[in-house]
Amino acid sequence: MADRSLHEKLARLVFQPLKPLLEREEVSVREKGNRYRLSLRPPLQSVVYQVDGEIITEGEKCDKMVLVDKGSNDEWIQILVELKGTKISKAIEQLENTLQNKTLQHPSNKDKRARIVGRSFPGNNGNTIMAEAKKRFMKEYKCELRSLKSDQPDTISAKTK
User: Fold this and answer.
1) Does the 6-157 domain belong in CATH 2.60.40?
2) Whole-model pTM above 0.90?
3) What percent of the chain has pLDDT over 70?
């Protein structure tokens, strides 16, 4: 395969990143008053893409994608981010559709994560929609699904590397 990473593939397809590939300690993206924060310890190379309206222009899709270079063997962490108010089921659908999109698939995406970022979430007392989605994402896509409150930090640490 000519492209060693999804980042190289997207560059070849002439998609411009929202934030260029740089070594960072923190990545932050925001939309609709919500902010996703990713802490990188140690600092790692990362790039951010606008998915909705840029890479995917039709159908349901997530808002942003963060790619983090793990620094060895062309292995990357792909994080799909949906910045949402409170509609969890809609966010799950958007993330799932994005995971199925061929343009965003690449063998270098060794670690896949999906994040729903919102201002508030329903209480965890039997939230079966989210629990079932977490199992399905892991089984079908080998992707960890989590919900985070706006500004709640997500972390990639040295042990992940």
Assistant:
1) no
2) yes
3) 92
